[in-house]
Amino acid sequence: MSRKQTPHELDMMVLMRSAAFRRFLLRVCSHAGIWRSTAGADQALHMEGRRSLGLDILTEAAAGLPRATSIEHVLAAILVESTPQETPDDDASHSSDT
């Protein structure tokens, strides 16, 4: 019996099937310098590199939105997706049962 896949795993399956998404990841890897050696780098530089990569990823994502879109617009779109939508209370829907 196999375990149920998480929403994240399902999302990534769909994305990884897309040649366009794989090209996006290649650009991200290029921005990140994944194929370059990091020997001797201190923690501060490592963290700044990660921050910079995050900004590069947001810049890449902005390419999928209408022209003249900034990183702030991408952040707003991400926050909308990550914010649960309000739904009626379950208790209110069951109150007519009593």
TrEMBL record:
Residues in Bbp19-like phage domain copies: 15-58
Highest taxon listed in the record's lineage: Bacteria
UniProt protein name: Bbp19-like phage domain-containing protein
Originating species: Sphingomonas koreensis
Pfam families tied to this protein: Phage_Bbp19 (PF25181)
